Amino acid sequence: MTVHTSKGLNSNTFVDFKQTRVDSSQSTEEEGGSEWRYWQPVRKENVVALQRAEMRMVRWMCGIKLNDRFPSKELRERLGMDDMALVLQQNRLHWYGHVLRKEDDDWVKKCIEYEVESPRPRGRPKRTWREVVKEDWQARKLNTEDAMDRSKWRKLIKDVR
């Protein structure tokens, strides 16, 4: 059974859909610019919700119902799409490499390195963006020297699938 036959869509439509992304640099100054979105880590329940929504759209585009019992991985492979969690990880690492290559006196780099000195509230501390990126680094076995070479960094981020 071919996946690309329903709804009058062809494989070129799917490639265009895959390459479409929202450009965060288009945010207005009232929103605080484009950088504010990167500092809060995505919660696991939000990633799961994104994956579910993505798979609903993929099944809809392919004309396959949930009862047809096609594996999600197979549908993504047929469309040439990556898993949402992997895309989020790649975007975090891409941004972090960009920040590491900035000058030491840049305000964005200072914000990443800034430690807030205040009494901690009771209970387990929330995961910080820096902790999430550190986990991503460890999972991919990356280091700061790799980030300084932009082309090598991009290749290392995109290679793992």
Count of all domains = 2
Gap from first CA to last CA: 25 Å
Largest sheet: number of strands, sense, barrel closure: none
Overall pLDDT, averaged? 76
Number of helices: 8
Q: Overall 3D geometry?
A: flat
Low-confidence blocks of residues: 1-6, 9-38
> How helix-rich are the residues, as a percent range?
40-55%
Q: Strand-residue fraction? A: under 5%
Radius of gyration equals 19 Å
What this model shows, in words?
This protein is mainly α. It has two domains: 1-21 and 40-81, no CATH class; 83-161, no CATH class. Residues 1-6 and 9-38 have low confidence and may be disordered. It is 54% helix and 0% strand. The protein is flat, with a radius of gyration of 19 Å. Helix 2 (44-62) packs across helix 3 and helix 4 packs antiparallel against helix 8 (150-159).
Please specify the SSE layout and strand pairing.
Layout: H1 11-19, H2 44-62, H3 72-79, H4 84-100, H5 107-113, H6 129-140, H7 144-148, H8 150-159
Helix pairs in contact: 2-3, 4-8
Structural key phrases:
2 domains, mainly alpha, single chain
